Amino acid sequence: MSSFFRNAIVRTPCRNIINGISSSSSGKPDYSVSLTQHSEYVRALRECGLTVTVLSPDNDFPDSTFIEDVALCTLRCAVITNPGAPSRSGEIAGMKQILYGFYNNVEEIMSPGTLEAGDIMMVENHFYIGISERTNTSGAGQMIRILEKYGFTGSTVVLSQILHLKSGSSYLENNNMLVSNELANRKEFDSFNRIVVPDSESYAANSVWINGKVLVPEGFPVTLTLIQNAGYDTLTLEVSEFRKLDGGLSCLSLRF
To answer: Would residue 1 count as lying in a domain?
Structure first.
């Protein structure tokens, strides 16, 4: 059973995006190009049938366009996270008011727990949570307890290399999971049909299923073909400027 989405929340990139966190050697993002790419991303979300709420840029937080990390939106509740990157902790301010526009139930992850929702992959009513440099066991434990309160389940996946769980995996519905090599043989995912992304295209493991279509980053033809051969309609999007900040397609929106 697929979970169809109706809404998305995004935040327009700010001018200060050039100072975002990065491990990339590709240089700083171009602000004007990032605006164009973000606009195309919003267009694609709408093409997938979503009503998109576009928040104003927040120049106090260079990485704030990666809004996925600051909240988890489920069918029954929303949870404000506690980002593990110190420079991002202030991004959660104001999120409660925004989310109460959509939810009656808004929970929060509290210190010493840290959690960024890029580490959370939803598979039907179960949520896999990556333990990473940004998400610790306390944060994951709090999230699992919150999810259980609303009738969901959760479990953890310890990561060693990738930034976030969804940096290396995407659930494409219908029991199909796109995975990078780091996650290809993990026992946690034994029950899924795993579509393994080649190392040369590992960035494309962060693709996004939305209402029957899969958004795929531009420039990864092998992965695109693998997804299409699995029976999915695809939309490709250029996200080069966000890649320079270790961000991907899923990072740019909250989808629910």
So the answer is: no
Is pTM, for the whole model, over 0.90? yes
251 counts as catalytic:
yes
Q: Which of 14, 48, 73, 251 is catalytic?
A: 251
The yes-or-no answer on residue 73 being catalytic is no
Please pick, among 38, 73, 77, 164, the residue that the annotation labels catalytic: 164
| Six-digit token string for 46 | 């709408």
- The order of strands in the sheet holding 51-55 is 51-55, 7-11, 254-255
Give 65's Cβ-side CA count (13 Å radius): 31
Q: Is residue 2 part of a domain?
A: no
CB-side neighbour CA atoms (13 Å) of 205: 29
pLDDT in tens, 96-126: 999 999 999 999 999 999 999 999 999 999 9
Give residue 60's domain range.
7-255
pLDDT tens digits, one per residue of 200-249: 999 999 999 999 999 999 999 999 999 999 999 999 999 999 999 999 99
